[in-house]
Design goal:
There is one protein chain. The protein is mainly alpha-helical. It has 23 helices and no strands. It is globular and about 70 Å long. The longest helix has 32 residues, at 535-566. InterPro entries: MFS_trans_sf, NFD4_C, Nodulin-like. Residues 354-559 form the NFD4 C-terminal domain. One of its GO terms (cellular component) is membrane.
Length: 581
Amino acid sequence: MAAAETTLKAGTRPPWVGLGAAAWVQIAAGNAYNFPLYSHSLKSVLGFNQQQLSMLGVANDIGENVGVIPGIACNYLPPWVILLVGSLACFFGYGVLWLSLSRTVESLPYWVLWLALCVATNSSAWLSTAVLVTNMRNFPLSRGTVAGILKGYGGISAAVFTEIFNILLNGSSSKLLMFLAVGTPILCFAVMYFVRACTQSSGDDPSENSHFLFIQGALVVLGVYVLASTILDHLLNLNPVVCYTILVILFALLLAPLAVPIKMTVVRMRSSKSVSIGERVSSTDSLVQGDGSLEKAEPLLMKTSSSTTISESFRECDDGSEVAMLLAEGEGAIKKKRKPRRGEDFSFSEAVVKADFWLIFFVYFVGVGSGVTVLNNLAQIGIAQGMHDTTILLSLFSFCNFAGRLGGGAISEHFVRTRTIPRTVWITCAQALMVATYLLYASAIDGTLYIATALLGICYGVQFSVMLPTVSELFGLKHFGIFYNFIALGNPIGAFLFSGLLAAYVYDTEAAKQRGSNSMLHSSGFSCLGPDCFRLTFLVLAGASAFSSIVSFVLTLRIKPVYETLYAGGSFRLPRTSDDQ
C-alpha cells in the first residue's frame, strides 16, 4: 500500500502548484535589476556624485549575490521562513530608500543608504534560494528543465518591472521603491504556502514532459511579448487604454504555469467520477456471483500480485550498476561509512576539497564575471561606438539572456538524457563563443554591436541555467543551497576584478588621453569616444574566456563517467548517500 501511495503522489498537483508559485517569486527576486530605473533619481534628488552612485551599484551587486547564509538556512528551515526573511529584507531595505528619496525623512547618512540597498537586494538571494532549492528537490529527475524555467523567469523579470514602471507607476522612482517595499512581501505572503517540499516527481507520469513543454512555451511567448511591447512603447505614443491592456495581458501570461495543476485537477475529477461508476458496477456483479467464484478469484489475485512484485524486483536489478551498489552495501556491513563519491550528497567541507568544485567555480567566475562586466558598461560601450540611445542594447541583452537561460536548461536536459553528454559541454561551447564575441566587440566594425550583444546575452544566460543542475548532480541536493550560493560569489568577484578594476582603468586612461591632461580625468559629464575605450578590456576578456573554455573542457572529461552512471538507460538515477552504506 505504501509503495502504491508513493507512486500516486509522485505526479500529483502540489509540485506543479509550487512551480507555478515559484515563477512569481522569481520575478520578485529580480528586484535587484531595477537599480538603473531609480539610480538617476538618487543622484539628482539626493545630490550624489558619480563615484557615490557607483558605490551604490557595488552595494546592489553584493546584496544580490551574497547568499551563503540563506543557503545554509534552507537546510534547517522550511521554505516559508526563507521567503519571510527575504520579504522583510525587501520591506525594510527598499522602505529606507523610499523614505530618503521621497524626502519623508531628511538627510539620512550615505552609509545608511548603502547598507539599506545591500539589505534590499539581498532579498533576491533569499527568495531565489527558497524556490530553487525546493523545486530542484521536488523535481530531482528534471533538474536542468526546472533550473532553466526558473532562471528564465528571473532573466525576464527586468523587462516585466520596466513595463510596470512605465505603465502602472508612470516612471516614478519613488513609486517604484514603494512598490518593491510593499508589493514583494504581499506577493510572497500570498504564495509561500505553495512553495514547499512535496513528494518527489518520479518521472513515471507520461504527461510530465508535455507539462514542462507548455510552461517553456508560455515563457517564450512571455519573453517575445515583453520585448515587442517594449519596442512598441519606444516607437509609438500609445494611449493609456492600450498600455493597461498590455499590462493585463502580461499578468495573464505570468499565470500560465498554473494552468498545469488546474488541468490536472479537472482530469482527476473526471477520473474520480469514472472510478466511482466502475466501483458501483463491480459491486453489483459481485452480488450476482456466488461465493465459489470468489474463492477461485483469490488465488489468481495473489499470483498476479506475486508476479508483479517479482517483475519489479528484476526491473530494479537489471543493470550492472545496481549489482555494484548491492556489493557496496555488502561492504558497508564491515565499513559503516565512506567518503561520498561524485553524484552523492556531499557536505560543504567535503566538496571544497574536490578539484571539480573549484573548476566549476573558476569557469563560472570567468564566464559570468566577464559577461556582467559588459552588462555594467553596456551604455558606455554603445556611446563609445557612436550610439545615442542605448536602451535598445539593454533590451536586446535582456531578451537574449532570458533565451539563453531557458534554452540552456532545456537543451542540456535533452542531451544528458539521450546521449549522457555532461551539461558542462554547453558551458564550454558558450565560453568559446564568448571569445569570438569579445573579439567582435574589440573590432568595433559597423553593424556588429547588436550581433555581439545578442550573442553575449545568450552565452551569459546559458551559464546560469547549466551551473545549477551540474552542481546538484555532482554534489547532491542535500546541501545544494550552500553550493549554489557559494559558487554564485563568482559573479560579484568577477565584476569587481574585470569591471571595477580592469574596465574602469582602461576607460579612464583612454579618456585622459582624449582630454589631453590627467587633471581632467575625473571631470563629470565627459565620455570616452572610440573603440579604444574598451578594446584592451575586450582582448583581456577574450583571453580569459579562451583559457576558461579549456578548463571547462577538462572538467567535462573528468565528470563524463559520472553522467554515464547517473543517466544510464536514459533516465536519472538517484544515487544513495554515503550514510546509507
